[in-house]
Design goal:
The chain is mainly alpha-helical. The protein contains 18 helices and seven strands. 46% of the residues lie in helices and 5% in strands.
């Protein structure tokens, strides 16, 4: 959204249901429960006017030129470059389309992956390429749940499934086959799998089978409303087996002190399970102390820039999984966690934000946060792409698209209310200024957000646009978690100021 706002809300790549899944009876109630929750959460932001009577405000926010200079000054102060990161040779980044890692060797590999980082199978290959530092290029393809696939891609891959690898002109599908081929073709690039016939290989193969067992047990509980206690008990047995294996070679990774293809295979599913089971079942995989070896593994993975560059957040996963799976079953235990992760509890998406840590709730994140730097990251992304972001946000005050898609956070053909463009532009500038100076400091400056009963801007349209944008900040597509939560919270600051007093 924040970099390709004119099209990214429609872009993804492939459904879990197009892969080998356990057979799960997904009831209509399962799908309906989730659909009802999303409708409630998004009712203000899908082509509907915001609350009538929202206040107007003054356009006294700094200009984009001034805000750009403020961003540059803070980037110099903190020693970061969020405005123009090195996408070719720098740390793993979702915006990259070419990666050489400083090498001059010929680029033999092209990866086709999903735009928003929803696809777990794409994440495996993406992470493997980053860990091995194999030079490659990237082409991003829609998922069916939110857009069409290009004809040129379908000519190469009639199934449309992702990921796809082109290597020396050869087209390879299926993540397991791709990953095995990369190990075979690039043995000098950090081997991640014990060689066939080595003493360690049988253990690695056994751990890969454990990952399939975990995958089955996770979805068996997540997607069904039947036999909840038995499904939970089975999953917990498998999690204990995972912990035992993590401890077997001393950890923190499955094969010992360093990452392997086993970790890369496990990580997309463990990441999504931690998010979805908390949201839908109220089950805490990480941060409860019940699975210490697994918690140590998450911490170790989050110490790697390669993984952090591909990692999503709980909010994004809990809304991208249902359209891929056909639905997730909510339980009463999950509802308060869901309210917090969706920012519907009145606290979680509002300032001041609580700190992040390896045990923070409702979402653990061991790198923690650095609010001034996180706010700067969010501000920089909006400044660079403010025109596209403004048009994207205006869909919230416009009309739903004529071609709806199954992903509820996507509306690729939505019609923006361009007549309110000036008001949304001013609102974005106020939000970015608040990110850069702090809301309290802003409100004692000449650029304070000044609300009024009437004025040149339609407050209801601005609120609808801000809500639409807030609900569609995606991780990792747009920002990392700490910066994403700052942007969501600062958009809520704007929204709350424009709502009339009760």
């Amino acid at each position: 959204m924040l970099c390709r706002a004119n099209s990214t809300a429609a872009r993804q790549s492939r459904s879990f249901t197009q892969r080998s899944l356990p057979r799960i009876a997904v009831s209509r109630r399962t799908v309906a429960v989730h659909a009802g929750m999303l409708d409630s959460m998004l009712k203000k932001a899908v082509g509907k006017a915001a609350k009538p009577g929202a206040l107007s405000f003054s356009d006294n926010a700094p200009s984009w030129e001034v805000l750009t200079n403020m961003v540059k000054a803070q980037e110099a102060e903190f020693g970061v470059n969020f405005s123009a990161p090195d996408l070719v040779n720098g740390p793993t980044h979702p915006l990259a389309l070419k990666r050489t890692f400083g090498s001059t060797e010929p680029i033999r590999v092209k990866l086709y992956r999903d735009h928003a980082g929803w696809c777990p199978y794409c994440q495996k290959v993406w992470l493997q390429l980053e860990e091995k530092r194999i030079p490659y290029t990237i082409e991003k393809i829609n998922m069916r749940c939110y857009g069409d696939k290009p004809a040129a891609f379908l000519a190469k891959v009639p199934s449309g499934l992702l990921p796809v690898l082109e290597i020396d002109g050869r087209v390879v599908t299926e993540s397991a086959a791709i990953m095995a081929l990369l190990e075979e073709q690039f043995p000098d690039h950090k081997p991640l799998m014990p060689a066939a016939g080595s003493p360690q290989r049988p253990r690695a193969d056994q751990l890969m089978r454990l990952e399939r067992r975990f995958f089955s047990d996770w979805l068996n509980w997540l997607c069904s409303g039947w036999n909840q206690a038995a499904a939970q008990a089975q999953l917990e047995r498998t999690l204990q087996a995972i912990c035992k294996e993590l401890e077997a070679d001393g950890g923190p990774y499955f094969m010992g002190a360093d990452i392997s293809l086993v970790d890369i295979t496990f990580c997309p599913m463990l990441e999504r399970a931690a998010a979805s089971l908390a949201y839908y079942k109220g089950f805490v995989m990480r941060g409860s102390g019940k699975f210490p070896a697994l918690e140590a593994w998450f911490d170790a993975m989050e110490s790697r820039p390669t993984y952090l560059g591909t990692k999503s957040d709980h909010y994004t996963h809990c809304h991208d999984l249902p359209p891929q799976l056909g639905g997730c079953h909510m339980t009463p235990e999950g509802e308060p966690v869901a309210a917090a992760l969706d920012g519907q509890d009145g606290v979680s998406w509002r300032l001041p934000l609580p700190p992040l840590s390896g045990t923070s709730a409702p979402e653990a994140y061991s790198p923690g946060d650095n609010p001034p730097v996180d706010r700067l990251e969010a501000a920089a992304r909006v400044v660079v792409y403010h025109e596209a972001i403004g048009r994207f946000a205006l869909r919230g005050a416009g009309q739903p698209g004529p071609r709806p898609v199954s992903a509820p956070l996507a509306d690729p053909s939505g019609v923006p209310a361009l007549q309110h463009e000036a008001g949304v532009d001013a609102a974005l500038r106020h939000t970015v200024h608040a990110l850069l100076v702090g809301v309290q400091e802003k409100q004692v400056m000449e650029h304070a957000l000044q609300v009024q009963e009437s004025g040149e801007f339609d407050g209801a349209a601005v609120v609808a646009s801000a809500e639409y944008l807030r609900d569609r900040v995606g991780v990792p597509r747009d920002l990392k978690l700490p910066a994403a939560r700052q942007l969501r919270a600062h958009l809520n600051w704007l929204i709350d100021n424009l709502q009339p007093s009760s």
